Amino acid sequence: MSARFFSLRAGVVAALLLVARLSAAPETTAEVRFFPGSGGRFEVAAHAGEAGVRLERLAEAAWAVWRGPLGLPERLVTGITVRLTPPEQWGFAEPAWRVSAEPTGLVSLWIRGGGVPGVERDRRWAAALAAAVLKRMAIMQGVGAGERLAPDWLCAAAAEAAAIEMQPALADAWRQAAGRPGGAAGLEAILKWPGAQTAAGGSPSWVGAFGLWRWLGAAPGRTESWSRFVAALLAGEAPGVALTRIYGAALARPEKAELELAWRTALAALAREQATPLLGAEESRRQLERLARLVVTPIGGGPEQGLELGALTAAEARGYPAAEREERAAWLTANFARLHPFYRNAGGSLGRCWLAQREGDEAARAAAREEWRSDFAVGLELERGSRAALDSR
Predict the structure, then answer these.
(1) Cβ of 232: how many Cβ atoms within 10 Å?
(2) How large is the average pLDDT for residues 230-238?
(3) Highest mean pLDDT of the ranges 22-31, 149-158, 240-249
(4) Is 384 helix (H, G, I), strand (E, B) or coil?
(5) d(Cα 385, Cα 344) in Å, to the nearest integer?
(6) Torsion angle of alpha carbons 215, 218, 220, 221, nearest 10°?
(7) Burial group, residue 349, by CB count within 10 angstroms (0-12, 13-18, 19+)
């Protein structure tokens, strides 16, 4: 039989196991549904409501921001199944999430639900998503499915990157925390930290984890050294040994004490940075695509539908669509300067479309919508042309 048959069979088995687990859980009247996302990334299953929508949105943003630093593909052959479990149904030993994997590469993630909506919940969920992604990456590089999970600091660092992507103001909060005496843990303490599932985002180890993500990712030989370092961690190499072996010579500090000094110096510099990071062309396109799309459930029942938010009239955009529009408009306003120049015009026309929708000016909304489509198409053409030019060199 073909490898594809075995992959499909593994997916069916995993689905049956998930159904069996749900059947054994206490009865609930809440409907469990899959929240639509991009195929081959995260497939979120949760009870209908705010939590599932937020987790799906966080998963999409996280995948986009992790693609570069973690070398993720556009999509996997088989996506990672994510199950948001109500706290009363949680039956695992782990306090916040559990990752399981099969030799075929199929990875499943259970996240404990509950908690107050906000930054800390987003961080915890993003750390769980990162643990699942890193597990999948480890299997892709030949590490056994039953081997240990990725280091906690790496999950926390990736989570903070995703949280900042959702709320850029958190970058300022991180700099303030990192600049305080004792705000970030020491290098060795971070590398050996076991608390991603239980610590709050403002803990010294969590703050230090994101600092390491930025420092090591921006160090000399960034692309090669960082990817080798992550691969070594996923293969189970001791973090201190891997750090010294891969970064010691590049940083001209092969000894532990000198690496700690280099870390503290780099952290102080990172805490003083005020530059707003610019999104890449691909990241900008993905964010605008996510902002423009709206998923709704028909009032009379039936499957969820994907709609273009700007295509709705002012009357159609009342209630939930209006709330979604305002939240997305706030993100667009806060991040407009970060959009890649290829897509900045598209961001402006999308915002004008929403503004006209809010004011009930149908003529202006329709005109801005056409401008948005044209500007987005131009941005896509520029992105593809730039990529082709680079590939031909």
Answers:
(1) 17
(2) 92
(3) 149-158
(4) helix
(5) 17
(6) 120
(7) buried
Q: Measured between alpha carbons, how far is 62 from 238 in angstroms, rounded to an integer?
A: 27
Confidence of residue 327 (pLDDT cuts 50, 70, 90): confident
pLDDT confidence band for 302 (50 / 70 / 90): low
User: The tokens of 12 are what?
Assistant: 């069916």
Tell me which of 11-25, 146-160, 313-327 is least confident.
Answer: 11-25
Angle at 167 between CA 166 and CA 170, to 5 degrees: 130
Residue 89 has a pLDDT of 93
Residue 352 contacts residue 366 (beta carbons within 8 Å):
no
Residue bearing tokens 């052959």: 77
Residue 114: phi and psi, rounded to 5, are 85, 180
H helix runs in 96-255, sequence order: 119-140, 152-166, 169-179, 187-191, 204-218, 222-234, 239-251
Q: Of 148, 129, 151, which Cα lies nearest the Cα of 139?
A: 148
- Roughly what angle, to the nearest 10 degrees, separates helices 204-218 and 222-234? 130
CA dist 61 and 52 (Å) reads 14
- Is the model's pLDDT at 21 over the cut of 50? no
Q: Kindly state the helix (H) or strand (E) to which residue 344 belongs, with its residue range.
A: helix 341-359
The percent of residues in the chain predicted with pLDDT above 90, rounded, is 46
Mean residue pLDDT across the chain? 83
Q: Are 119 and 126 in contact (CB under 8 A)?
A: no
Specify whether the CB–CB gap between 332 and 325 falls below 8 A: no
Residue 156 CA to residue 199 CA, distance in Å, equals 10
